[in-house]
């Protein structure tokens, strides 16, 4: 199910503003890839270009290729809605649907994809997804209660359950722990580690310890200068990047000398 992603020569714009320039990388299947770098260097923009979420912003455009399973996601016949089903996204702030129960929150994506299903099938998806998100035992006796009644960390795991309920190939996570306390953060990090058996995971994080803990490979993004586009400076196995980075600016960033 999990797929690798081949990105080549990607330029990403907001109107005339070139936000990210010339990114080429291969994101491996069944692994965790982290993106780090100072604020404004385009990590989130690049992440959103991987499932065609970038272009929902008026005037936003992408040039270059993002190839998953031999298919260019920006090819002429590709349906962006189907791309977003195959490549799910988890956001910075947990965003369960406030009026929906835990049960319905998990199924929200499946219903959007207009699948009609029997109760038994729906029950199976809810249980499998909540187990996958490591939340089942905490909520199995209150599936009919509102998703908003959960703690922040539980809400984020509910959002992860909602993302995996549609059986995506890739999960994109944009600072998924930034609104969480250390215990919830640790639960999500454990979950990310478990999920990589089945999914290709890409995570943006400001927390370098987190990148070092959860990821197999890391991409360091930076701006050449203020007002210049963001670009990929270095992409390497995480262990190597944190021990012996290839680039001086990577070293300066991870040792806390800037950013
Ligand atoms: N909706 C938008 N419209 C116009 N410009 C935008 C928009 N979103 C982001 N940008 C610009 O694109 C550049 C990259 O922003 P982005 O949010 O991707 O960076 P980031 O590395 O994820 O930053 P942070 O770490 O602060 O979240 C910045 O110059 C930002 O101001």
TrEMBL record:
<dbReference type="GO" id="GO:0035435">
    <property type="term" value="P:phosphate ion transmembrane transport"/>
</dbReference>
<dbReference type="InterPro" id="IPR017871">
    <property type="entry name" value="ABC_transporter-like_CS"/>
</dbReference>
<dbReference type="GO" id="GO:0005524">
    <property type="term" value="F:ATP binding"/>
</dbReference>
<dbReference type="InterPro" id="IPR005670">
    <property type="entry name" value="PstB-like"/>
</dbReference>
<feature type="domain" description="ABC transporter">
    <location>
        <begin position="5"/>
        <end position="248"/>
    </location>
</feature>
<dbReference type="GO" id="GO:0016887">
    <property type="term" value="F:ATP hydrolysis activity"/>
</dbReference>
<keyword id="KW-0067">ATP-binding</keyword>
<dbReference type="GO" id="GO:0005315">
    <property type="term" value="F:phosphate transmembrane transporter activity"/>
</dbReference>
<keyword id="KW-1278">Translocase</keyword>
<protein>
    <submittedName>
        <fullName>Phosphate ABC transporter ATP-binding protein</fullName>
    </submittedName>
</protein>
<keyword id="KW-0547">Nucleotide-binding</keyword>
<keyword id="KW-0813">Transport</keyword>
<dbReference type="GO" id="GO:0016020">
    <property type="term" value="C:membrane"/>
</dbReference>
<dbReference type="InterPro" id="IPR003439">
    <property type="entry name" value="ABC_transporter-like_ATP-bd"/>
</dbReference>
<dbReference type="Pfam" id="PF00005">
    <property type="entry name" value="ABC_tran"/>
</dbReference>
<dbReference type="InterPro" id="IPR027417">
    <property type="entry name" value="P-loop_NTPase"/>
</dbReference>
<dbReference type="InterPro" id="IPR003593">
    <property type="entry name" value="AAA+_ATPase"/>
</dbReference>
């Amino acid at each position: 199910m999990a797929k690798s992603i081949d990105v080549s020569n990607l330029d990403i714009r907001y109107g005339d503003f070139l936000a990210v320039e010339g990114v080429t990388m291969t994101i491996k299947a069944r692994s965790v890839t982290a993106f780090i770098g100072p604020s404004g260097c385009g990590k989130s923009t690049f992440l959103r270009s991987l499932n065609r979420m970038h272009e929902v912003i008026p005037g936003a455009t992408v040039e270059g290729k993002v190839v998953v399973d031999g298919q260019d996601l920006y090819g002429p016949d590709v349906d962006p809605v189907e791309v977003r089903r195959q490549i799910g996204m988890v956001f910075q702030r947990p965003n369960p649907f406030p009026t929906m129960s835990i049960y319905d929150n998990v199924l929200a994506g499946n219903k959007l994809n207009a699948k009609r299903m029997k109760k038994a099938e729906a029950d199976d998806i809810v249980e499998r997804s909540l187990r996958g998100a490591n939340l089942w035992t905490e909520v199995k006796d209150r599936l009919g209660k509102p998703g908003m009644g959960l703690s922040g960390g539980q809400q984020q795991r509910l959002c992860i359950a909602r993302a995996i309920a549609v059986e995506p190939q890739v999960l994109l996570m944009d600072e998924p722990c930034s609104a969480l306390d250390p215990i919830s953060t640790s639960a999500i990090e454990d979950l990310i580690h478990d999920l990589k058996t089945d999914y290709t995971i890409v995570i943006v994080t400001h927390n370098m310890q987190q990148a070092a803990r959860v990821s197999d490979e890391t991409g360091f993004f930076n701006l050449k200068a203020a007002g210049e586009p963001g670009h990929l400076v270095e992409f390497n196995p995480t262990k190597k990047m944190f021990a012996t980075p290839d680039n001086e600016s990577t070293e300066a960033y991870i040792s806390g000398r800037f950013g």
